Amino acid sequence: MKTRIIPLITGILLASGTASAASLDVKITNLTQGIYFTPLLVSAHTSDAMLFQAGDKASEALQAMAEGGSLAGLSEILTGINANTMENPAGGLLGPVASTMTSLETDAGNDRLSIVAMMLPTNDGFVGLNSWPIPTTPGTYHIYLNAYDAGTEANNELVVDGSGAPNTPGIPASPGAAPGTQGSGVTETESNTLVHIHRGNLGDDDSTGGKSDLHNTVHRWLNPVAKVTVTVK
Amino acid sequence: MKLLRLTLPAACLVLAACGSDNDDPMPTTMPDEDMQMVEDPAPVDPDPADPVDPVDPTPTTIELMITATNLTYAQPLSPIAVALHQEGQFWQVGEPASNALEVLAEGGDNSDLLALGVVQSKASATAPLPPGQKTQLTLTHDSLDGQKLSLISMMVNTNDGFTGLNALDVSAMTVGQAMTFTTHAYDAGTEANTEAQGTIPGPADGGTGFSADREALNKVAMHPGVVGMDDGLTTSVLTSSHKFDNPLMTVTITRTK
Q1: How high is the pLDDT of residue B122?
Q2: Which residues of B touch A81 (CB under 8 A)?
Q3: DSSP label of A115
Q4: Do the domain assignments include residue A12?
């Protein structure tokens, strides 16, 4: 029975002009000079769902992604709402100025595109695209993405093994240039606990000591931090 | 847009949050794709022979609802001002700031800007907008013909930094239409960015706001950002928490009437 009902509903949706299935190519470029993206989550979903929203509290699933790069929680939710998702198109980290390309076949109704990945080295910074309306007209579209702070962890800028787990302060890894050590910590508090635009890393020029384990000439950025090129076929 | 909030489907509850603002730049889907000229509900050709209605016809009222979210970590935004005008601009990059702009950018007081002769409709928030929070303002006018919308606010933990929307054409907005924008940080160029004690009116300092003196540059530019004591400016009252990056605000303009 079920198998008959589903196509029927789909047919009705199509007939009534609801956003139809689409075939997309999605290219993502890391525009930064010294920041790495953890495995990317690329998802087409319905317009009533959002992975994150600036000015709102991060979900636990978003927190896990932003603090440790884990996609498990977000992925489970997306599966639950029948989103069309591609995980980890770069097969690992997407380094500075590197690009990755993926394709996405979207089902009818999944007319919004969202992309997230943690930025390394940061405490809870992530690159994000929130519910971009997928155009119905075939063509190539460019979108520039900003860096967000999940608001869930103080930006102490200390590189600590195993700190990717939620509620464990620290930056879990610093790929690329070896980070500094023995920093005293930039801050222990997070006064804005809502998702917001990341204020940027501070860093310092002291490789053993100072406040931060990050380098002020390497680990900074300005928005935008990524470029997305979507080709609607 | 409103509909989404009302229906609040289950999917929203499990995901991060619901809302209608998209705060990412969307150059390819700028809302004006869907924009069409509003056909003014043309008053029926008045026929002088007809008896005059004793009651004045209700004038057409246009209403715009403006929602602004502060996207920064620790920069409260001075009470947000919005205005409709047909002429002029609150600021122009490369040009000296007007006195009214200087008053806003150095001290957060928007009253001189809103009192400018070109302003045809205005509204101001009553309090600063804290980081992460949103506020809503309403503008009404009898017609949108030729109208531009400007919005402005000071980042109060700066010397003379401000953000806003500059003379945005809203004349073709249709009822129910919503447009979302993000705003950037500007420097009024009227006060040197010393970040010194006593020069910043926000909670980081509690210093002086407006001072009529002008710095040598005296031109509006994009803001270079704050430095802070943690970054080596030893005389700064700001810390790394006051750093910011663009964009500063998400602004959604919805024509409600």
Answers
A1: 98
A2: 11, 14-15
A3: E
A4: no
B199 lies in some domain: yes
Mark yes or no for CB contact A129/B24 under 8 Å: yes
Q: Is B233 on the interface with A (CB under 8 A)?
A: no
The answer to whether position A13 is within a domain reads no
The ipTM value here is 0.85
- What are the helix (H) ranges across A131-220? none
Q: Would B26 be classed as within a structural domain?
A: no
| Residue B42, domain member (yes or no) | no
Query: Among partner residues B19, B26, B239, which is closest to A56 by beta-carbon distance?
Result: B19
Query: Tell me, what's the pLDDT at A177?
Result: 87
Number of domains present in the structure of chain B: 1
Q: What is the DSSP string of A145-165?
A: EEEEE-SSS-----B-TTTTS
Q: Cβ contacts of residue A221 below 8 Å, gap of 6+?
A: A32, A33, A34, A35, A147, A200, A201
Q: So what's the pLDDT on residue B59?
A: 64
CATH number, domain containing residue A109: 2.60.40.2130
User: Structural domain tally of chain A?
Assistant: 1
Amino acid type, B130: P
End-to-end CA distance of chain A: 33
pLDDT in tens, A114-126: 999 999 999 999 9
Residue A144 lies in a domain: yes
Query: What residues are paired with A22 via a beta bridge?
Result: A106
Chain A CB contacts of B15 below 8 Å: 49-51, 59, 77, 81
pLDDT tens digit sequence for B112-144: 999 999 999 999 999 999 999 999 999 999 999
Examine residue A37 and state whether it is found in any structural domain, yes or no.
yes
Rg (CA), chain A: 19
Domain CATH for B164: 2.60.40.2130
Domain for residue B194, yes or no?
A: yes
E strand or H helix at B3:
helix B2-7
Q: Scanning the structure block, which residue is given the tokens 């992975």?
A: A51
Q: Give how far Cα A92 sits from Cα of A51, A70, A95, A147, B222, Å.
A: 21, 12, 9, 19, 36
* Domain, as residue range, for B212: 59-255
